[in-house]
Design a protein that fits this description.
This protein has helices at 10-21, 33-40, 51-60, 97-106, 126-135, 153-158, 176-188, 190-194, 204-235, 239-247, 268-281, 289-312, 340-350, 363-369, 379-383, 396-399, 404-408, 425-430, and strands spanning 2-6, 25-29, 64-67, 78-81, 115-118, 140-143, 163-167, 169-170, 173-174, 199-203, 321-325, 354-358, 374-375, 388-391, 415-418, 434-436. The protein has 441 residues and is α/β, with parallel strands linked by helices. The protein has 3 domains: 2-197, 3-Layer(aba) Sandwich (Rossmann fold); 212-295, Orthogonal Bundle (N-(1-d-carboxylethyl)-l-norvaline Dehydrogenase, domain 2); 300-437, NAD(P)-binding Rossmann-like Domain (Rossmann fold). It has a 6-stranded parallel β-sheet, with helices on both faces. A 6-stranded parallel β-sheet has the order 13-12-11-14-15-16. Helix 13 (340-350) links the parallel strand 11 and strand 12. Bound molecules: uridine-5'-diphosphate-xylopyranose.
Length: 441
């Protein structure tokens, strides 16, 4: 199929390359000239395992190209809209400027029978409004949310755990145009469809809600276990054992019960805020009032990590050398958007600590946003002479490949704050360290 992908950020760049890798003829369109140049040269503009390979194959095979010219969308059968919907500058709601601009640019190039597949995360109700404008051109709008995780984005796009397509419905059934759009998208995702990947057809509102509900649930799961960490701290319980024990209940499950400094990134924080803002507009703020609480718990855990460092250093970090291990919001990513790790580093710096940050992938991004912090590429150099070690992103380099005896030979003070509860506390204590976890005795 011929496809256009409008918006080549995290989602769009991966989507364009992944669609090309399964045999489609794809043009990626973005207004950012530098990004387009990099992608056209087969260079991934961000760290994402496997992306460079499929970009290069697609570009070399001539079934993947990138341009800033929206007219290149003309002639595609399916147009994926994957522009960003950031948090509004002055509030919690989503900023739809880029979605509106993408639609304005695309509409003149649509032909009757084309499918526009919205992938951006939007407030529920957005698609219904856009559908009318798309329909006037003879094309059809579908809403096709994505659930990709950074670090696994290529796999999640080619081989997702479900595909959701929202279309126009009458009395709960797709209209004729909607049914045709569904068939087009089945063709677009052929390899996954042939693998019997669940393919759910819904109305627009449900498709939009699936995305935010999924992220709200994940955020709630993380904040729930972090709330239990707070109770554990007040009672001497160990939240990691608690999570193991409740996680054995198949109805609960152990995944996303990792207590620590909480969630960040470009999706969960902004999506739960936008969801709460949209619910308020709908007169249903009470229904998701808990999301504000989840947000608050999440932010409190960053401060708790700072408190632990203060406790470990007898109340003051002033002049103390603090090795911060990690800057990205999670491992296998160079993304520092709303990163809890960097937030902890910035707070410790603000309290007068001599903070040294290291990370295997995110230092260039971190340096751009927080130039006042000190960054060191080499982990061992960062550890050298540290008074306290603060682990804030659970990269394998720290979790698996940093024996406590080796780390002990480098530091000045054998004190470690494990902001992700990912170290073996007993092994670190046995090597002479004072170990502080999150929600652990
Ligand atoms: C998330 C959703 O998982 C994905 O489906 C959606 O499409 C986009 O948002 P992502 O932002 O890549 O994906 O990160 P995710 O793996 O969900 O982690 C989010 C944050 O939660 C990270 O900061 C991570 O460190 C934190 N987290 C995760 C925890 O604190 N504890 C856990 O147990 C799991």
């Amino acid at each position: 199929m011929r496809m256009s992908v409008i918006g080549c950020g995290y989602l769009g760049a991966v989507h364009a390359a992944a669609m090309a890798s399964i045999g489609h003829d794809v043009v990626g369109i973005d207004t950012d000239e530098a990004k387009v140049c990099a992608l056209a040269a087969g260079t991934a503009p961000f760290f994402e395992p496997g992306l460079s390979e499929i970009l290069q194959t697609g570009v070399a095979g001539h079934n993947l190209r990138f341009t800033t010219d929206i007219r290149a969308a003309a002639g595609s059968d399916v147009h994926f809209v994957s522009v960003g919907t950031p948090q509004q500058a002055g509030g919690y709601a989503a900023d739809l400027t880029y979605v509106d601009a993408a639609m304005d640019g695309l509409l003149p190039h649509l032909r009757p029978g084309d499918v526009v597949a919205g992938k951006s995360t939007v407030p529920v109700g957005t698609a219904a409004g856009l559908a009318r404008r798309v329909r006037d051109t003879g094309a059809t709008l579908a809403w096709n949310p994505e659930f990709l995780r950074e670090g696994w984005a290529v796999k999640d796009t080619i081989d997702p755990d479900r595909i959701v397509v929202g279309v126009e419905t009458v009395d709960g059934s797709p209209t004729e145009h909607g049914a045709r759009a569904i068939e087009q998208l089945r063709d677009a995702y052929r390899p996954a469809v042939e693998k019997q990947t669940p393919f759910l057809v819904t109305d627009y509102a449900t498709a939009e809600l699936v995305k935010v509900a999924a992220n709200a649930f994940l955020a709630t799961k993380i904040s729930f276990i972090n709330a239990m960490a707070e109770i554990s701290e007040a009672t001497g319980a160990d939240v990691t054992l608690l999570a193991d024990a409740i996680g054995h209940d198949g109805r609960i499950g152990r995944r996303f019960l990792g207590a620590g400094i909480g969630f960040g990134g470009g999706c969960l924080p902004k999506d739960i805020r936008a969801f709460a803002a949209r619910a308020e507009e709908l007169g249903r703020s009470e229904s998701v009032a808990f999301l504000r609480e989840m947000d608050a718990i999440n932010l409190r855990r960053r401060e708790r990590a700072v408190q632990l460092v203060l406790e470990a250093l007898d109340g003051s970090v002033h002049g103390k050398r603090i090795a911060v291990l990690g800057a990205s919001f999670k491992p296998h990513s160079d993304d520092i958007r709303d990163s809890p790790a960097l937030d902890v580093a910035v707070r410790l710096h603000g309290l007068g600590g001599q903070v040294v940050v290291t990370d295997p992938a995110a230092l260039d991004n971190a340096r751009r946003v927080h130039p006042h912090l000190t960054y060191i590429d080499d982990r061992d150099a960062a550890l050298r002479d540290a008074d306290v070690v603060v682990l804030v992103t659970e990269w394998d380099e720290y979790r698996r490949q940093m024996p406590p005896e080796h780390a002990a030979s480098l530091v000045r003070g054998k004190v470690v704050v494990d902001g992700r509860n990912c170290l073996d506390a007993a092994a670190w204590r046995a090597a002479g360290w004072r170990y502080f976890g999150m929600g652990r005795p």
